[in-house]
Amino acid sequence: MPTRQQRALRRALNTTRWGVRAALAATALVGALAAHAAAPYRGRPVDAVLGELGYGRTMDFGNSQAYGSKDNPMAPGFAVGIPYDSRPASVGNGTMIAIMCASESKIAAAHAKALALGAKDEGAPGARSPQFYAAYFRDLDGNKICLSKF
Q1: Which of 29, 51, 63, 103 has the smallest number of Cβ neighbours within 10 A?
Q2: Total count of domains within the chain
Q3: Are the C-beta atoms of 63 and 82 separated by less than 8 Å?
Q4: pTM of the model
Q5: How far apart are CA 49 and CA 60, in angstroms?
Q6: Is residue 62 assigned to a domain?
């Protein structure tokens, strides 16, 4: 049984016992190595994987690209780029970006596309609990990405 303080925090964050009910973030950014941000590579694998989820490139700043949902302008965005401080991008230990998906078939298609483009499989599409379906991969820079549906 959650404490009064835990219940208050869940209400404040609009979460359930199993996860977030509403998107709390506007955009998630993952760092890229300089070679991956440069032409001709620039964003192409990201374009392909997010395209499977109905996202398209909304901005291109040369060293970084931003993506948004074509169908839902209120959906959180996703961005990839060279860190602003110009130091090498690094993967946070225990850090993961989760992208909410419309269906299990979208998760499977995007996961397959990511692997076809060189991503490392971190968990095949499947039910993780009765309420949660997900797939995991590490992108070419080592960032852990979760494709999920509650």
Answers
A1: 103
A2: 1
A3: yes
A4: 0.67
A5: 17
A6: yes
Indicate the length of the chain as a whole number.
150
Q: What is the structure's pLDDT at 7?
A: 60
pLDDT tens, residue by residue, 19-51 = 444 444 567 888 877 666 655 556 678 889 989
CA distance linking residue 102 with residue 41, whole number of Å: 28
Scan for tokens 């949902």, then name that residue.
69
8 domain-assigned? no
- One-letter amino acid at 105 equals S
**Residue 80, number of CB atoms within 10 A of its CB:** 26
Question: Do 16 and 132 form a contact (C-beta atoms < 8 A)?
Answer: no
CATH code of residue 103? 3.10.180.10
CA dihedral over 45, 46, 49, 51, signed as positive or negative? negative
Residue 104 lies in a domain: yes
Phi, psi of 108 (to 5 degrees): -60, -45
Residue 68's SS3 state is strand
**Tokens for 125?**
């599409």
Question: What pLDDT was estimated at residue 109?
Answer: 95
